[in-house]
Design goal:
The protein is α/β, with parallel strands linked by helices. The chain contains 27 helices and 16 strands. Strand 15, helix 25 and strand 16 form a beta-alpha-beta unit.
Length: 664
């Protein structure tokens, strides 16, 4: 008989104190959460390791030592590569479709067909037009916006050539993609081709499947995600640092609490504006509330945090728990990372779950569809629905954890450039110099999700702490960024925990050594930062030369895999935690690591042990620094600072110590 799950078992699954408190509420109220289901639902070991194929109805075929081939003869390598390719295609499709919607909203806004949405950041629009080689001379902002939108829309259906933003990558990288036949054609084309290749009886060579996986992932990083980021900036403003509150403790007992959750910024932006309208505030007061308090979950949270300073109630695993406070009048969801269980959890309290995307419906939710032509009207309707629900709160049944942290978000690549020299002298020179003289050893991106098969936020936060202490700058996005924010790591005071060199740089600029650069689609900002560092000079001539590593320690989504693959295809060593979806195939595992490193200079590895992640990251950064000839700190300049050593250095030091001892 299986052991009963205790409350202690659940609270051991998170380092978030508010989550611990609310998990007790879940147990008190008999509510099932992802934490509990993760214990109850045992993963099928064959499916988990990529060894189950259900691509046709002769199967599903489960590969075991006794049955090493499916009915069609497919072996474990083909099956693992095929499953992985489809996961990446789904991830890339999610960002592509998000980007497509943004491009159509830009088109509508440019043509005056939207309500309340206008081009806000003309400077960014001009910069984007420049990337697309669109002549802006003598054209109105709306005309430029229209041309930019149409060019992006073309990229989805492009059949030949490369997608537009490929030209933003370092020249050497573009050449490599061309030589290796990795240039993505249209976004839709590559994703459709992946679905075709992985149909029963098509591409049966894991190497070829993995090659197309990389090409598909590039439609995400340098396509869907990058254009989604850029269009969001054009319409709602390019982020710059803004202070906000983090954790569910930001909910207010006397106000209408509204949570926006998902990934798209449009409805939430309109809701922020509408929530400040005197009529809406008066309406909230007429229902007995003192005002309206908006907060976010997941990446819609990151979007409104970066641009509006709206606080985040938490990341992926906080979504159900936030409703358990009994203080949420409405949770408004759009697309991606929204748990189906929310409808059931909401039913037990007074919370209204509101779906807003035509693509994402949940039985039991109220559907108020977002339409750009009625954007403000829809936003007001959603707000009024939430306000009407305020009197339904069960007084005395509210649990608001008494913890809230401060965070600063909004480090767009434009701002990072600006903070290194101001409007006229902004550049990446200071950062490159700091890396070259060793004050900063390298850069690590810590991105991605929570996964209840691991302790919530634990790996993300411990890795961030470790790396800043070793003078490695951390940039973070998605739920990783929120995890760091909840632990109070996104404020300049965190510099006290940084190594001396990194601290010196952070002190000079007044920033945290952990920079929040945005949502999941904003991982494209990390590509832009990396490209700018290469273009600045002194750190090689390709992204693969940089002393940088990408980490996704608590991943769960297919989008995370797509992001991981486009980082690899762009030349970055990328490490995922939790476990490997291709663990069943040694060959595929090797191809993604050694094989991809030979092919594109980046590699993908799945390493659940954070100690090993730290070792491998340091080893990689040290190797890249050596290759650039910048191994050591400038002598004497920074006193007795740590020098990162690899095995050869350690052996040399030991030999010297032995010799010295022998001569005494
Ligand atoms: Fe089985 Fe082959 Fe069909 Fe997959 S494609 S389910 S391995 S028969
Ligand atoms: S929301 S993809 S859980 S980061 Fe972007 Fe978080 Fe991962 Fe969703």
């Amino acid at each position: 008989m299986s052991k009963e799950i205790t409350t202690q078992d659940l609270i051991n699954m998170t380092i978030d104190e508010t989550a611990k408190e609310l998990l007790k509420v879940a147990e008190r109220d008999g509510i099932s959460t992802a934490f509990k289901r993760a214990i109850e639902v045992k993963p099928c070991p064959i499916g988990r390791d990529g060894m189950c194929c259900k691509h046709c109805f002769m199967g599903p075929c489960r590969i075991t030592p006794k049955t090493p081939n499916g009915v069609c003869g497919a072996d474990v390598d083909t099956i693992a590569a095929r499953n992985f390719g489809r996961m990446v295609a789904a991830g890339a499709a999610s960002h592509a479709d998000h980007g497509r919607d943004m491009a159509f909203i830009l088109l509508a806004a440019s043509r005056g067909e939207t309500e309340g949405i206008k081009i806000k950041d003309v400077k960014k629009l001009h910069a984007v037009a420049g990337h697309l080689n669109i002549d802006i001379h003598g054209k109105t902002t709306e005309k430029i916006g229209e041309e930019v939108a149409l060019r992006f829309i073309e990229d989805f259906g492009r059949q030949k050539g490369g997608i537009s933003y490929i030209s933003r990558a370092p020249k050497k990288r573009q050449e490599l993609w061309k030589q290796r036949n990795l240039l993505p054609r249209g976004l839709d084309r590559e994703i459709v081709e992946m679905m075709h290749r992985t149909h029963m009886g098509v591409d049966q060579d894991p190497k070829s499947l993995l090659h197309h996986t990389l090409r598909t992932s590039l439609t995400d990083g340098w396509g869907g995600a990058m254009l989604a980021t850029d269009v969001s900036d054009i319409l709602y403003g390019t982020p710059s640092p803004v202070r906000a509150k983090m954790s569910v403790g930001l909910l207010k007992e006397d106000e209408v609490n509204i949570i926006v959750h998902g990934h798209e910024p449009s409805l939430s932006e309109m809701m922020v504006i509408a929530s400040q309208e005197p009529e809406i505030i008066a309406y909230a007061k007429s229902k007995g509330a003192n005002g309206i308090n908006m907060a976010g979950i997941c990446c819609t949270a990151n979007e409104v945090l970066m641009r509006q300073g709206i606080g985040s109630a938490g990341n992926f695993l906080n979504q159900e728990l936030t409703i358990l406070t009994g203080a949420v009048e409405a949770m408004v969801v759009d697309v991606q990372c929204i748990m189906e269980s929310l409808a059931d959890v909401a039913k037990h309290y007074h919370t209204k779950l509101i779906t807003s995307s035509p693509k994402a419906h949940i039985p039991g939710a109220i559907h108020i569809e977002f339409e750009e032509e009625h954007a403000m009207t829809v936003a007001r309707k959603v707000l009024r629905t939430a306000i009407d629900n305020f009197p339904n709160r069960k007084k005395g049944a509210i649990t608001l954890p008494d913890y809230v942290s401060e965070a600063i978000g909004g480090f767009s690549h434009e701002y990072i450039k600006y903070m290194q020299g101001g409007t006229y002298r902004g550049s990446f020179r200071p950062l490159n110099d700091a890396i070259m003289d060793g004050r900063i050893q390298g850069v690590v991106g810590i991105v991605g999700c929570n996964n209840p098969r691991d302790i919530q936020d634990s790996a993300i936060v411990s890795l961030a702490r470790e790396f800043i202490s070793r003078d490695i700058l951390v940039v973070t996005t998605g739920c990783g960024g929120i995890a760091c924010g909840k632990q109070g790591m996104l404020v300049p005071e965190t510099m006290a925990a940084a190594g001396p060199g990194l601290r010196e740089v952070c002190e000079a600029i007044g920033i945290s050594p952990v920079l929040h650069v945005g949502s999941c689609v904003d991982n494209s900002r990390i590509l832009t930062i990396a490209t700018d560092m290469v273009k600045e000079g002194g750190l090689g001539d390709d992204i693969s030369d940089l002393p940088a590593v990408g980490l996704c320690p608590e991943w769960m989504s297919e989008k995370a895999l797509a992001i991981g693959c486009y980082f690899v295809a762009s030349g970055v060593y990328t490490i995922f935690g939790v476990g490997s979806p291709v663990a069943g195939s040694e060959n595929v595992t090797r191809m993604m690591s050694e094989g991809w490193e030979q092919e594109v200079g980046g590699k993908l590895e799945f390493i659940p042990d954070t100690k090993v992640v730290i070792e491998k990251t340091i080893e990689h950064i040290t190797r890249k620094r050596k290759a650039l000839g910048i191994t050591e700190y400038a002598k004497g300049k920074f006193g007795a600072q740590k020098v990162l050593m690899d095995m050869a250095d350690r052996r040399k030091l030991e030999d010297e110590q032995k010799k010295a001892a022998a001569s005494r």
